[in-house]
Amino acid sequence: MLNLFLKSNSRQKAGVTAGIMGIVLNLLLFSFKLAGGLLTKSTAIIADAFNNLSDMGSSVITFIGFKMAGKPADKGHPFGHGRLEYLAGLFVSFFIIIMGFELAKQSFGKIFRPVPVKFSVFALVTLVVSIAVKLFMFFINNELSEKINSQALKVTARDSLNDCITTSAVLLGIVISFLTTINLDGYLGLAVSLFIMYSGVKSALDTINPMLGEAPDPHLVEMVKNEVLSDKRILGIHDLIIHNYGPNKIIMSLHAEVDSKGDVLELHDLIDSVEKELKQKFNCEAVIHMDPVVTDDAEANEVKNSVTEIVKSIDSRLSIHDFRMTDGITHKNLIFDMVVPYDFCLTDNSLVKMIEDRLESGTYYLSINIDRE
Q1: Residue-wise DSSP of 65-77
Q2: Separation CA 98–CA 200 (nearest Å)
Q3: Which of 138, 165, 309, 344 has the fewest CB atoms nearer than 10 Å to its CB?
Q4: Most distant CA pair in the chain: distance in Å?
Q5: DSSP states of 287-322
Q6: Which domains does the chain have, with CATH numbers?
Q7: Which residues, in sequence order, are CB contacts of 122 under 8 Å at separation 6+?
Q8: With bands split at pLDDT 50, 70 and 90, how would you rate the model's confidence at 273?
Q9: What pLDDT, on a 0 to 100 scale, did the predictor assign at position 8?
Q10: pLDDT greater than 70 at residue 152
């Protein structure tokens, strides 16, 4: 079944097709549930019907989002329009929150003013079929979101699962009302509406964070490092930056340290090859800056090792790179960059002063550029 959505081999067309599926199925569910609600005079079924109508609106937004996100890069948007998918997912989340709030209000009304529900086979069958349809939509959208890495479809899948719970609660309440004199529709509706609002808030956060520029996946960072360092001619890497311009649109840059005595043309060819490998393996655009480092200066290497040990003794998360030692008239200059976590407790000046004190030598002047990571 999933192959029907992916046969075009295009994530845009797959997303658009999923959006059309949501529009058609939710419109049908709305129509049948509204008819069932009017027959039974059940406010719960009518509310559930309008929940499907809001889902149809969400599918329209998803459809538009994928259409716009598929636009190619242009002069004003050189990295494409992929982030529109996140925006579409955010709108879907807002719809979920609003609908949850509306259901909560209606549920409170039903708790204090219970309404007798009339028996209708048509309404019961409609609710059962609705649960089956929503489960189908959940599995399709969830699988599709994984295949094409779409946050918007992931949110839609979560909403479909919530709809299954909502409709099941409505069905349970109606069955209990038919079989007993107890009316639980209001209480069940309130519990479900709170769950829906929670899901909507969580989905909104999942779409807001990528738009704000969240930190890259640590697993991805580690894989990139291992890939670059797999060639022994690259001695180290630093200043790795990964930008997310939408699902499957990653741009990364990094600095790769190489031996300053190596052949420039050979090393340049190496960097080009690594860039191509990163592009093929991670489906990204990669830019690598080549940093030549001195490896055969025994004194500089010894001092660098000492500074590294001092830095690590302060905090194991600290690291240094681009280390250079230059001669002055009365002293030697130690120039390097130091990577410091954002949550590090010391100020930059305090950290530098601590390193100077532990180095225990008046012959070295430190020039440290601190990078927050």
Answers
A1: HHHHHTSPP-SS-
A2: 9
A3: 309
A4: 98
A5: EEEEEEE--S-HHHHHHHHHHHHHHHHH-TT-EEEE
A6: 2-212 (1.20.1510.10), 218-293 (3.30.70.1350), 298-372 (3.30.300.70)
A7: 35, 36, 39
A8: very high
A9: 46
A10: yes
